[in-house]
Structures are given as structure tokens and as C-alpha cells.
Amino acid sequence: PTGASNTLGGTLMPKHTRASILDTAKGYVTQDRAETHGSMEDNFSTIAAYWNIHLGAPFVDAVDVGLMMAMVKLARAKSNKSHADNFVDLAGYAACAGELAMKGNDDAQDH
Questions:
Q1: Of the four listed, 53, 57, 76, 95, which is most buried by Cβ atoms within 10 Å?
Q2: Helix locations, 1-111, DSSP H
Q3: Which pLDDT does position 8 carry in this prediction?
Q4: Model confidence over 16-52: pLDDT tens digits?
Q5: How many angstroms separate the CA atoms of 23 and 63, rounded?
Q6: Partner residues linked to 13 by β-bridges
Q7: Chain centre to alpha carbon of residue 56
Q8: The pTM is what?
């Protein structure tokens, strides 16, 4: 069947599971991409600066960039619910925003 990629105990397992989507996103956001794209924090801060210039006021910070990019992926997923990349990227942007939001806040409750 289409969309299946492995078996477990003879049972065909779906290709795109919660775990596989999160694992893929984790791979994307934890591999060293700084050589190609610069640091994630610097990149998001630069995007925020550009967006603030466009908006004419300092409304946006690096955390907002991660959140708003997640919203872009939500909008794309709404129009194409079967494109797994939207969900992988959504998880990745949420993780990046969370990391930036918690930076320097080691005393924050985990969950």
C-alpha cells in the first residue's frame, strides 16, 4: 500500500507516524547547519529585523519568527494536508521557537 515503508511483526506500519515526523524534524534542527545558514538564533534575529523594517516598528523578535514560521506551515498544511514536509517543518519551527524562548531561563518548569 502507498505510504507504508516498514513492517513490525509482520504488520505493515505507516510511513509517516508521530515519531517519524518528530525524528525527521529533530534531525533537521539538531544537525549543524550553521556553515550553510548561520546560527539559528542569528538567522531568526535577522529575519525579525527585516520584518520589523517592513512593519515600521519593532514588533517581532527571534521567538516570534519561529512562531510565525510555524503559522506559515499551518497555513500550508491546511491547503495540503497530505504533504508530510509541512508537519516536519511545523515541529522544527516550534522546537526552535521553544529553545529561543527558554534561553537563559534554566529555572523554568519543563512541562
A1: 95
A2: 18-30, 34-37, 40-55, 62-79, 84-102
A3: 52
A4: 889 999 999 998 888 877 778 888 999 999 999 999 9
A5: 22
A6: 6
A7: 27
A8: 0.75
